[in-house]
Amino acid sequence: MIGSDMGMPPFDVFSLSEDVRERFGWSSDDLSKVMEQLLPAALNGFRYFGSTVPGFAEFPGAPSSFGTGDASPFSSFMQNASGTALTPFFGPEAVQNALAAQISGLTGLQSDAIQEMMPVAATLAIGQVARPFLQG
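Request: output the structure for the sequence above.
Response:
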């Protein structure tokens, strides 16, 4: 909640670290290892798979196949954290599973837990894409 001390901001780094430590037994270093793999994957995935998001034609570096569409370019994938919502960043479900398995092999961490971190990486990636367009 904005302007309230009762709610936590989304993806608060400290809360996220505590959550993965409690749920998956990860250390802060484990979380860093996963995010070091997921964030570049999300950014590169967006360049490749992002054409599924309407309204991003005006973003620099966006795939040339973007068309015009919704008034809000975020509306089509920020509604939920399903595998479909992650498609613009990590591709179809089979690609998401393969990516999680590969990162699991590199880090030795649980593949299902890595998949739970994908929405966080996608959120950070869209922030990187949108940052040049924000005033302030």
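The helical segments are 13-24, 28-49, 87-90, 93-107, 111-130.
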